UniProtKB/TrEMBL annotation:
It comes from Hymenobacter armeniacus. It comes from the Bacteria. InterPro entries: FSCA_dom_sf (IPR034904), Nfu/NifU_N (IPR014824), Nfu/NifU_N_sf (IPR036498), NFU1-like (IPR035433), NIF_FeS_clus_asmbl_NifU_C (IPR001075). PANTHER family: IRON-SULFUR CLUSTER SCAFFOLD PROTEIN NFU-RELATED (PTHR11178), NFU1 IRON-SULFUR CLUSTER SCAFFOLD HOMOLOG, MITOCHONDRIAL (PTHR11178:SF1). This is NifU family protein. Residues 5-93 form the Scaffold protein Nfu/NifU N-terminal domain.
Length: 199
């Protein structure tokens, strides 16, 4: 199988999105590895962390976002090296994951869901639908992801992953974009807070 990959800039100057012509994950599933220890489930991510400038790896349906730790290194030097590595690895049939992340995520969501009231559960479902249908596609275009974590007494908690984590514009996007949309569509929502944003 021939793999073609192109690099696409993200709003975070330290993150680059590498888009492949084949799928790595099911639609709607993504994984974010802030360090090599977190990447135990992904041989691909572990290999990427062997590049000494790689600080974070995010994998979604058909792209990998790499965040570098050395601002002085320009992407023009790094893109050819990373693109060649990804192309060779995927073409050779290298393992992307040891356990399917979709199964892992379902188990984690069930564990953190707690026991919301029926009303909170209905509001949470509305929020999840809005995030999945309107917000996530836009965030994925920028090389990141947003996932619902919880809803409690008017406060929605989300996780920002990939290029969104550490992005200078993430807080603005969260407050002026996502929070406004959710408040308009779900009147019970009072505010949106994010985990994974390093401001």
């Amino acid at each position: 199988m021939s793999v073609s990959i192109y690099a696409e800039a993200s709003p975070n100057p330290e993150s680059m999105k590498f888009v492949l012509n084949n799928n790595l994950l099911a639609d709607g599933v993504s994984v974010d590895y802030p360090n090599v220890e977190a990447a135990a489930n992904s041989p691909l991510a572990q290999e990427l962390f062997n590049f000494d400038y790689v600080g974070r790896v995010f994998i979604a349906q058909n792209f990998v976002t790499v965040t570098k730790t050395q601002p002085e290194l320009g992407w023009t030097q790094l893109i050819p090296e990373l693109r060649q590595f990804l192309k060779s690895y995927v073409e050779a049939g290298g393992p992307i994951f040891t356990v399917d992340p979709a199964a892992e995520q379902k188990a984690a969501q069930a564990a953190t869901a707690g026991d919301p009231t029926q009303q909170e559960g209905q509001i949470a479902q509305k929020v999840i639908d809005l995030l999945d249908n309107y917000v996530r596609p836009a965030v994925e275009q920028d090389g990141g992801n947003i996932t619902f974590k919880s809803y409690h007494e008017g406060v929605v908690t989300v996780n920002l992953q990939g290029s969104c984590s550490g992005c200078p514009s993430a807080t603005v996007t969260l407050k002026s974009g996502i929070e406004n949309l959710l408040k308009r569509m779900v009147p019970e929502v009072q505010s949106v807070v994010a985990e994974g944003v390093m401001v």
